[in-house]
Amino acid sequence: MRSSIEYYHRERGTLEQEQIYGERYLRFVYGHPVGRLLLFAFVKRALFSRLYGALMSSRRSRRKIAPFIETYGIDTSEFVAAEFGSFNEFFHRRLHPSARPVCAEPDAFVLPADGRHSVFPDLTLARPQYIKHCAFDLPRFLGDATLALAYESGAMLVSRLAPVDYHRFHFPVDGHATDPRLIPGFLYSVSPLALERVPRTFVDNKRWVTVIDSQRFGRVVFVEVGATNVGSVVHTAAAGPVHRGDEKGYFLFGGSTVVVLLEPGRVDWSDDLLEHSARGCEVYAKMGERVGTAALPADDA
Fold first, then answer.
1. pTM for the full predicted model
2. Active-site option among 170, 191, 204, 277
């Protein structure tokens, strides 16, 4: 199991070490023989996350908020609410719109969430490298072999949200969205520490699939992947027309992941995201930032 997680901080232009929430727990459960017995017998199952989620939704959990903010240096000036009834309320907090401005360039493809991001511009080429870290079966991941055909050589953006991040997710493009489709599954951690030990996490975890028909970006597939202590996703947007930057929903307590799939040749990705992703280093950036542009002119899209 790796000793640390390094990522590139886009705003600062620096390589940094991630502060891992619950690191001792993760290393025990995923790295120790006794911990792995607990993982497969109990931790990966929905009951564990429901019990922990109930604890984080209790009024007593409020006492965890202030130490958490101090430890991880969270900017409270961004919060809409000044007080929270539970840790879970704090976890899925709303932010002032000015805290997450959405790129206004008409051809921009923006990040759907805060977090650490990687892009795989061609899954045909990237798949052997990616399987090393997370065995990825596209038809199984989408629960639809026919839908998967359109993305076999397409692009995949992976946005990993750590517990310290803003946990609402948003639409990356304008378009017309379907209702989310639930695919039942387990609830393994999505931390890189855990992915090394359970490489089939993305295709085994509970997830929700939404298809967005976009004039400029084609048919975009948006997938929320649940994780340990994230047995629930709340969808706040209805099926129908959506706009880039609109809120789509939020995760309850825990780390989680958003995966976006695009058809081949639809996006020209930002150089920093391509460069760091190619060497296996995630890029930390915030929701609404541009990470690509439409590859086709508006008249041809």
1. 0.86
2. 170
- Residues 214-252, buried b or exposed e (16+ Cβ, 10 A)? bebbbbbbbbbbbbbbbbbbebebeeeebebbeebbbbb
Q: In terms of Cα–Cα distance, which of 125, 117, 148, 135 is closest to 8?
A: 117
* 170 is a catalytic site residue: yes
Q: Which entry of 49, 86, 114, 191 is annotated as an active-site residue?
A: 114
114 is annotated as an active-site residue: yes
pLDDT digits 0-9 by tens, 66-110: 999 999 999 999 999 999 999 989 989 999 999 999 999 999 999
Catalytic option among 49, 189, 256, 270: 256
In eight-state DSSP terms, residue 95 is B
Instruction: Using alpha carbons, select from 254, 257, 247 the residue that is nearest to residue 225.
Output: 257
Residue environment code for 19-39, b if the CB has 16+ CB neighbours within 10 A, otherwise e: ebbbeeebbebbeeeebbeeb
Q: Where are the domains of the chain?
A: 1-301
* Residue 58, SS3 per DSSP: coil
